[in-house]
């Protein structure tokens, strides 16, 4: 199994009162990709990291094999969700992939 972890920070211009709703929208739409994107087994969205965290939120996904991450990245459903609910609001993307 392959794990793909992506973390983001909100852009500075995002108001504090917007953040909770934006996170909910990100979570709902990113999780909805399970069953739509081949190879994507699970999707968990971390909305409330503990204070020691360096990023505002994270997406933790699992795949059958490493090549499935590239399929996910280019899949039209993922691109639509990312372009609508994630990319307009975030910066400082960090990614870690690993196999177990």
UniProtKB/TrEMBL annotation:
Residue stretches making up the Stress-response A/B barrel domain: 2-98
Matches recorded under InterPro entries: Dabb, Dimeric_a/b-barrel
Pfam family, one: Dabb
SUPFAM superfamilies, per the entry: Dimeric alpha+beta barrel (SSF54909)
Source organism, top-level taxon: Bacteria
Name recorded for this polypeptide: Dabb family protein
Organism: Roseburia yibonii
